[in-house]
Structure formats: structure tokens, C-alpha cells
Write a structure and sequence with these properties.
By secondary structure, this protein is of the alpha/beta class. It contains 12 helices and 7 strands. Helix 1 crosses helix 12. The structure holds adenosine-5'-triphosphate and magnesium ion.
């Protein structure tokens, strides 16, 4: 199983949209994919129409009992795509795990009990706290969504530094999968300028595929389904399918 943490401590940059739709696109190619909702907001779980009352056992439970991972993983409406949902309880874990043994290695220990998956995506919360650290320790690669707006690069160096620290201290496998530019508005010159700046700063580590700003991507979660099911032909879905091809070819 190749495990990808989708991370950026900035909020609202497209982490969840990317995790949900990239996972769906890869499952559509016949791969067996697991998506772990690792954000107490539970947006990835909502994106699959999973009622809050139906989210136990959740990604919180596997932090104290790794064996819960297999029970927490459940099928979604997408064939070959399983989901481990998140509940609000996960917010408590940021505090409860402090000072505990192996505080950053809990998710990894739980995922190691799973078999039969090709890919695992971890949808991280917008912080660099213990939850995101658990995501980075569990991952082989980190995928960073970056919104094409003026402040895009702010905070990125801190995130890259955290990735390097986790790699040096506890997870030598960890590498950057790449940066994916999201919510690109082709009618806005600034969007293009930011995309160019990011490319000159990060070069080949930026995926060629750019995710456009597309209202269908933001509507899909309210219908409880990934955009790829909600509207396969919309520009956002097409971009995520292109990203999946590029991503799988690079992996
Ligand atoms: P958070 O940090 O809160 O977890 P996030 O980084 O996971 O946020 P998303 O939830 O994926 O970001 O996206 C933020 C908002 O922008 C959501 O309402 C989402 O539907 C919308 N959105 C994401 N990508 C696009 C896009 N390409 N075009 C239009 N809307 C988008
Ligand atoms: Mg999110």
C-alpha cells in the first residue's frame, strides 16, 4: 500500500477536494483505494454523504486501538474505494496524545494492520499539530495542494521544513509527491502569475495538471458524492482525472 498524506496547514486550499477526487479517480482505474478522513471537521466523510451518526468506529478509534482500522474502513458508493470517517472526537486527540508513547506513530501503526489496498490517502486537517504529524509519519509521500492566490507560498517553507524533520527523525521513507495548484482562475491574471511563481520556486515538484476553479467541485459535497460521480464531464472532474494519470505515472 502506498500512503499519501494530503497536507497543508493553510485552511481551504483544496486538501479535501483533492483527496476525495484523486482517490475516486484512482479507484476508477481499478486500483483499490482507502481514504482516511483525519480532520475533525469530517469534510471528507460528508463528501461521501456519510451521516454523522454513522461514523463510528472512526479514525479516532484507531489511535488507541490499531486493530480498529479494519473495522473502521467501510465501502463507499465508489467501487474499490473504502473510507475511514472522522468524528469531532478527533479534535481531542491533539491534546490527549501529548506526552503519550509513540504519539506521532499511532496512525501508521493502525494502517500497518491493513491489507489489500493499493493506495491510501490521508486527508489532514489545516494545522501542523499532532494529527498532521501522524499523517506524515504514516505516509510514503506528501501531496501539497496550493491555492493559486497571492499568499499561496506563505507557510509552504514551514510545511516543507516539517516534512524534512519528520523524514530525519522518524520516517526516512517520506518524500514529496508534489505540489498541485488548485482553484486556478484562468480569467484572473494573478492566478497565472502565482502559478508561474510557484513553478519557478519549486520547479519539477509542481504537477503539470492545474485544478481550475469550478463550481461543480464545490457543489458535489452537498450532494454527498465526489465530483467525479456528480458530474464526470465538468472541467474539475476532468482535471482530477488528468491529475490521477500524472500522479500514477510518477509514483
Ligand atoms: P480545510 O483546510 O478546511 O480542511 P481544504 O484545504 O480541505 O479545507 P477544501 O475543503 O477542499 O479545502 O476546499 C475549500 C472550499 O473550496 C470547499 O468549499 C470546496 O468545495 C471549495 N473548492 C475546492 N476546490 C475547488 C475548486 N477547484 N473550484 C471551486 N471550489 C473549490
Ligand atoms: Mg479539508
Amino acid at each position: 500500500m502506498r500512503t499519501i498524506a494530503v497536507a497543508n496547514q493553510k485552511g481551504g486550499v483544496g486538501k479535501t477536494t483533492t483527496a476525495v477526487n484523486l482517490a475516486t479517480a484512482l479507484a476508477a482505474t481499478g486500483a483499490r483505494v482507502l481514504l482516511v478522513d483525519f480532520d475533525p471537521q469530517g469534510n471528507a466523510s460528508t463528501s461521501f454523504g456519510l451521516a454523522r451518526s454513522a461514523r463510528s468506529p472512526s479514525s479516532y478509534d484507531l489511535l488507541t486501538d490499531p486493530a480498529q482500522a479494519a473495522r473502521a474502513a467501510r465501502p463507499t458508493m465508489v467501487p474499490d474505494l473504502a473510507l475511514i470517517p472522522a468524528t469531532q472526537e478527533l479534535a481531542g486527540a491533539e491534546v490527549e496524545l501529548v506526552g503519550e508513547a509513540n504519539a506521532t506513530g499511532r496512525l501508521r501503526a493502525a494502517l500497518e494492520t491493513l491489507e489489500g489496498q493499493d493506495w491510501c490517502f490521508i486527508d489532514c486537517p489545516p494545522s501542523l499539530g499532532l494529527l498532521t504529524l501522524n499523517g506524515l509519519v504514516a505516509a510514503d509521500r506528501v501531496l501539497i495542494p496550493l491555492q493559486t492566490e497571492f499568499y499561496a507560498l506563505e507557510g509552504l517553507s514551514q510545511l516543507l521544513k516539517t516534512v524534512e524533520e519528520v523524514k530525519a527523525r522518524s520516517n526516512p521513507r517520506l518524500d514529496l509527491a508534489g505540489v498541485v495548484l488548485t482553484m486556478h482562475d484562468k480569467r484572473n491574471n494573478l492566478s497565472d502569475q502565482v502559478a508561474n511563481d510557484v513553478r519557478s520556486a519549486l520547479g519539477h515538484r509542481v504537477f503539470g495538471t492545474i485544478i481550475p476553479r469550478n463550481v461543480r467541485l464545490s457543489e458535489a459535497p452537498s450532494h454527498g458524492m465526489p465530483a467525479l460521480l456528480y458530474d464526470l464531464k465538468c472541467p474539475g472532474s476532468e482535471a482530477y482525472m488528468a491529475l490521477a494519470r500524472e500522479f500514477a505515472a510518477a509514483a
